[in-house]
Amino acid sequence: MKTIAFVSGKGGVGKTTLAFLLGTALTRAGRQVQYHDLDPQSSLTELLKLHEVAEVSKPEFVIVDTPPRLESKEVKEAVKTADLICIPMRPSPMDYGVTASTAEVVAKLRDPGAKAMVIFNQVRRGTFWSKKFGAFDGNEFAVPVVGVSISLRECYAHALTAGWSALDDAASSELLNFALSIN
Fold first, then answer.
1. 69 exposed, middle or buried (CB, 10 Å; 0-12, 13-18, 19+)?
2. Using one digit for the tens of pLDDT, what is the confidence trace for 120-147?
3. Three-state SS for 81?
4. Residue 21: which H helix or E strand, with range?
5. Rounded distance, CA 63 to CA 14, Å?
6. Where are the domains positioned within the chain?
7. Residue 63 in contact with residue 36, Cβ under 8 Å?
8. What topology is assigned to 2-181 in CATH?
9. What would you report as the CA-atom Rg of the chain, rounded to the nearest whole angstrom?
10. What residues are paired with 118 via a beta bridge?
């Protein structure tokens, strides 16, 4: 069983959306996925109810959605016990500092055998900040930046209510590439 935690010290970076869509991609690939929603807002839990996602008896993956509070006991425990920690980041100057802080906390708390990565999310292609962050060489944070990014697409928001069929081909490819990057 592989545990994947989505962590950031900032809200609005897409932790819940990425957690849900990654789990959906894995499920579509025939994998058994369990979810654990630690965020008091319970957005992931509500999505699972909406899509009638059932509990699985023998999960291959456990996806953990965390609140945007790095100091919380739940977030620290999720980081310590995860096999992979994903830190979503929107390419903006407002998110850079929080992502750097999150990466430092994750690097200190994670198990030595666990992987951690920053993933650019909600990327508006061709903008100043997407180009600037796209030029990173991987040494900007205490954990590496994954080689795939998730663009800002309206269909991702639609997929939260309508399901995978709301995604266009490019969005499906981005999510499948993200799923492949977690191994």
1. middle
2. 999 988 888 888 777 777 788 999 988 8
3. helix
4. helix 15-28
5. 14
6. 2-181
7. yes
8. Rossmann fold (3.40.50)
9. 15
10. 87, 145
